[in-house]
Design a protein that fits this description.
heterodimer; A: alpha/beta; four-stranded antiparallel beta sheet; elongated; B: globular
Amino acid sequence: MTTTTTAPSTKRTATTRSALSVSGLSKRYGERMAVDGLDLDVPRGVVAGFVGPNGAGKTTTMAMILGLVAPTSGTGSVLGHSIDDPAAYLGRVGALIESPAFYPSLSGIENLSMFATIGGHDPAEIPTLIEEVGLEGRGDDRYRNYSLGMKQRLGIAASLIGRPDLLILDEPSNGLDPQGVHEMRTLLGGLGSADRTVLISSHDLSELEQICDWLILIDTGRSLYQGPTRDLLAGTINGIAIAAHDPRDDDTLCGVLAGRGLRTRRDGARLVVEMESGADVNAVAALVNRAAFDAGIVLVELNPLRTTLEDKYLSMVQGGER
Amino acid sequence: MNRVIRAELMRLVRRRTIVITVSAALVFAVVATLALFASAKTSGPIVSRGPITLARLASDRGGTSAFAIGSSFVGFFVFVTIIALMASEFSGGTFRALLLRSPNRMRLMIGKLIATMMVAAVTVALAEVFSFGMSLLLAPSKDIDTSVWFSAAGLRGGLVDFVTVLAGVAGWAIFGTTLAIIFRSTPLALGVGFAWAGPFENIISQSWSTGLRVFPGQVLGALIRGGTADLSLQRAVVTGIVYTAIAATAALVLLTRRDVTS
């Protein structure tokens, strides 16, 4: 059975400080449970990453939060309003779900003007939004002539209409080239603020690791972890990579370190000093460096190996921490 | 609702759309009027649902005859156009995107339909005015006295023609929207709509004359033509209202209850 890991230091229940919370949220399609009793709580003002494999239920969860899909069961609130009444909160929510959808024959600005009008917002802000997402000079081009990256940017601009308190972005970097991913990461990184909560689903874990201060990991419609990114990755330095200037010194180095109570293993061309859980990485690094120096060995690498979000994610999704 | 209508009008009323609409109305007027005047028989009675005669063209409703008769082909065109427009809203994801700004699905769809019908009303009015103008230009070639066209009866007849054509167009638009909502796929909805309103109704009606009075497409066609030999205008209005009410109810129930997944 899958259990949810919640960061102990920040364990919280849904409160008015939550931008978004759901409890026991489920969606069944025939025999398949797309979302299975999901509990979420996203505090206000965080940039939250929503992570899970394909089919984990991320988009369905977002669609339920946005009132597009009716939950089979469960409750929830968005910005203090029940998810049963999306009209009460959608005016303060900006969203890009699945993929950007605009009218191909209209220009970017005309599309945004239409969306602003329908939402009761002032179209005067549109030139600023176009500039914010990096589409200046292309706003008058027809949407059908936009590249995939420009379409994604326009989708982000549309979600920002009315300066929403909550942004929900589903795979905003989907289909972008490396340059586009980098630019999108910079753009997304600037969206969060004390007054705005951002929920981003993405497969780009390095992107989420860099821009998110809160993480939600789900699999098969259930929550695996939710809490601060730093808590998930805290204490996750699992070794120190070292390399002697002269590789012939490796065996000597291993012996010297063993004499100081440190275990090593080979990892390709380099050695890895294994870390005990909870060990002080700086102290161990200093010990390694001193031992090598005392033995007359020059180190050309001394690099703490940090468990990445990807490592953590894979271990959780593949069953390591379920 | 006002915001939805305004937003939809922003999309529909643009220079390109206006040029296309005016051009279409003009082409319709020219083709319908030329065809009518060319095919008008020199003798015969003035029967509103009978063959076109010069005597009928010289009657008080002669000025809008080309519009009234030509419009009988407009319904099907409106039907497939609305199917394509509305179904692409679902398959292209724009309906989903609009729902995020205007979450009341019924209000959104009705607002879009009202805006579309506003544009349709202007187009129909233009087509009627243009065909009236074309008829005025062609009347001397057939020695038709047009003074009676400007009589109160003539103008009233023109207004009735406008209302019946617009009502028929609205009916087709609702049927088209219903198919779009049911199938949410442009090719599928177009295929079903085209097959039903095209070959199916017409082939069945040839061997089963009751079909001319009960099939939705035939009923709306009769409404646009101001009644036919098989179906009076009054009967067409009542039957048309019943059909469109059923279609609209089914569409709105589906629209509000189904998940929006694309």
